[in-house]
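User: I'm new to structure prediction. If I give you an amino acid sequence, what do you actually give back? Let's try with this one:
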Amino acid sequence: MVEIRIHGRGGQGAVYASQMLASAFFLEGKYPQCFSSFGGERRGMPVVGFVRVDQSRIRRRCEITSPDHVICLDASLLNEAPVTQGLKAKGCLLINCDEFPAGLKLGDSCRLYTVDASQIATRYNLGVLVNTAILGGYARISQAVELDTIIRVIRETVPSNVKANEQAARAAYQEVNSLNGDI
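Assistant: Good question. You get back a string of structure tokens that encode the predicted 3D arrangement of the chain. For your 183 residues, that looks like this:
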């Protein structure tokens, strides 16, 4: 089983990103589970999405406290929320930022990636919605889901600016950076 935690702020599309990712896993014949946690339900407040995926039915029904992968849609959350808490050894952390964050404390075996999803979203006139871009980057670094499947989910579920969202996902797939040099 792979467990993924997605951190973002209200209005960035973190909840929708977790739903799209779960849909992509389902289309690939896997068994996904998706749920979210958020408090004040206000724009800009921290939001967490959770996705589990396995080759067989998932019976576990609790929050993900030891994720294999963490996706962070807003780098400022690294100073405000326990984004990296519980990240497993050899786990992946993908952060929406333009450079590697200084002073980020991770285990030696964690893999750190960045993609400037905000700049990509701006490039394609998507405003603050970075979810489709970050999913394109996630497809590249995780190898858990195919980019073509993410694109299919975008085409089938995104209500507007479908082409721009597709282009953002493709751009992020190409522009993701690795601190470890493993992509």
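You can read the tokens as a compact description of the fold. Here is one thing that stands out. Residues 14-27 form the longest helix (14 residues).
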